[in-house]
Sequence to fold (245 residues):
Amino acid sequence: METLTRNDARRQKAGGMAALYLALALLAAIPYFLLVVDYPGAKTAADKVALVVGNYPSMYAMYLATYVLFGIALGVLALALHDRLQAHAPSTVRIGTAIGLLWSFALVACGMVFTYGMTTVVALAKTDLAQARLTWQAIEPVALGLGGAGGEVLGGLWVLLVSCVALRSGALPKALDWLGVVIGVVGLATVVPSLHDAAIAFGLLQIVWFVWVGVTLVTTKATAAAPDRLARASAAQAGIVLGQG
Fold:
C-alpha cells in the first residue's frame, strides 16, 4: 500500500496487535504443555485422561487462548496482510488469504473440539472412567488433526505465499520476508511423516516472525498523501451533490 488512510493504518495496527497476541500465546503454550502439564509425555489414554481430569480448568483456559482465540487473531492478521499486499500481487494474495483463513478456522475448530471434549470426558470420568478413556481416544485425533499434528501445510503455505509477495514488493522488511520463506518451507516439510518433529522449529521460528510482523504493522502510520486523497474525494462528492441540486 503506497498510500494509507487513517482507517488503513488502524487496520494494520489491529493486525499488528493480533500478531503480537499470537506470539504471546505460543510463548505461554510451550512451557505450559511441557512443564506445567506434560501432555506430550503422556503415552496412554489413561495417562492423558488423568491429566485432563486433574488439570481441567487450566487446560480449558489454555486451549481457549492458544487455539480458539489464537485462530480468531490469526484471521485478523491474515486480513491485515491481505490489505497490505493485495495491490502488488492480487491473485496470489487472495489465494494466500484464503489459506490463512482456512488455517484460522481449523485452529478455532480444534480448540472447540478440545474444550468441549475435555468437558465431556471430565463429566464422564466421574461415573465411567473406562468409557471416558475410550471417548478421549476418539476426540483427540480429530482435534490434533485440525490443529496441524499431521503437518503444518496450511500455516506453512500461508506464511510462504505472504513472504514471497512481500519479498518481491518490499511491503515488509526483506530480512523478515526471508525468515518467512524459511518458516514456510519448514512448515510444508512437516507433512512428511519422518519430518513431523520439524513442527517444533516451525513453532519457535513463528514466534519471532509474529513479533516482527506485529511490530511492523503496529508502527504503520497514515501517509501524508492520504489526507490529500480524502480531501479530493470529499470535494468531488460535494461537487456531485451541488450539481444535483
Confidence is low (pLDDT under 50) at residues 225-242. The first helix runs from residue 6 to 36. The CA atoms of residues 170 and 217 lie 14 Å apart. The chain has one domain: 6-233.
